[in-house]
């Protein structure tokens, strides 16, 4: 009986169609109660939250700003990281690698046995603010510093890590923050649509569980045995939201050196621009003076100012006219032939009495560019405010006390007017006062802690001379102005890993 010939290759039986790869889950870990609660929930029951039983598909991603409270770092190091290391959860810590976007992102650590949260990376949030001579911005509630030092790092790391693969992004909004969750979801939907693919799928476990802030804090306390404090930067302008005033000032008193840092940052910011305090219409300094328990903090602040080098800064500012809605409507993105109503609003009476339109072939009225010459009483409304340009030049450096005497001496010699800031009480020598309307200009000399970069945009000097008739600065700068390096704003952002090897991908943008 014939036997079957032996097969040349022993092939396995064909399998069914391959299942799509399961997306990785990335938890944006901010060290606070919300994201810590989510971590503990994942550790207790990973399968319930769509994770593998061994948590091999979970990445805990933390962006290091460099200015967290020491007690927040200590809490996570002692009570959270040992649990993650025991389960071998992957923890990745990233930070900005330098002041320019093209410097990229540095992966400070990528480990399954992480034992500490890094205190700082090469370029801290406070470095950016101090060299800019400013404080975090509160305009429209937009947290620019979080976008620049957290979101930017996380997005570029994710692009280098996943490429075109979709991942699940877990965010720690609690049940009372549904509006923030909805806003975040809409933003991600737009990003996915622009990219033509699903970059990531946002998930909000605390909202799904109906846990508000009180429930989150109680959950963490029950699991870890210690109450968790709010996580935010030491100079955060949203500290009134992040914690009560009492708790925030208690923290400042516990860390007078960090409180002095925050006050010195605010002092330098207000010296260069009086309205730029940490809390908008109120300064941190004003707030602390209202409670005698803060006297030690204020003493530490004065000692800090006496210890650091000071500079005399010549500050020049231009207030330029903006464009009206009419100008943008009729003249497009760039106005080549401005009319009076391009910079000044038309009044309601002008719009009623000097309406300009024609009737089309279909009988419909077509609105035309306004023809009013602006000479009739009551046609011109208010001017539109545009951008404000600032030039900062260092003209002297030395100790604080000597800076005060030099400021007064130069003022007497130059005939400038010495004034104190209405809120800051900081002395300034004004040699050009701001006029009414736009364009307008002002200039003064002020003493403040050294560290703010000299800067002004390339066309500043031309516009300064056009508007004021003056040429250059009143006093001689002590160093040449560093010019902007073209190409530093590259869309190609390197992500440098602990081995020192850079992983580069171009970020998808609209």
Structure, explained:
The protein is α/β, with parallel strands linked by helices. It folds into four domains: 25-224, Rossmann fold, CATH 3.40.50; 239-307, no CATH class; 312-320 and 385-468, no CATH class; 323-382, no CATH class. Helix content is 35%, strand content 20%. It has 16 helices and 17 strands. It has helices at 33-44, 70-86, 125-132, 144-162, 178-195, 205-209, 213-224, 239-242, 245-254, 256-272, 284-288, 295-307, 325-331, 348-353, 400-414, 460-468, and strands spanning 25-28, 58-63, 90-96, 105-111, 167-170, 200-203, 310-321, 344-346, 357-359, 365-367, 380-383, 385-398, 417-420, 427-432, 440-449, 492-496, 502-506. The strands form four sheets. Strands 6-5-1-2-3-4-16-17 form an eight-stranded mixed β-sheet. Strands 12-7-15-14-13 form a five-stranded antiparallel β-sheet. The protein has a two-stranded antiparallel ribbon with strand order 8-11. The longest helix has 19 residues, at 144-162. The chain is globular, with a radius of gyration of 29 Å. The N and C termini lie far apart (73 Å).
Q: Architecture of the largest domain, CATH level 2?
A: 3-Layer(aba) Sandwich
For the largest beta-sheet, the strand count, sense and barrel status come to: 8 strands, mixed
| Parts with pLDDT < 50 across at least 5 consecutive residues | 506-510
Work out the helicity level: 25-40%
Name the beta content range: 15-25%
Number of domains: 4
**Gap between N and C termini:** 73 Å
Shape: globular
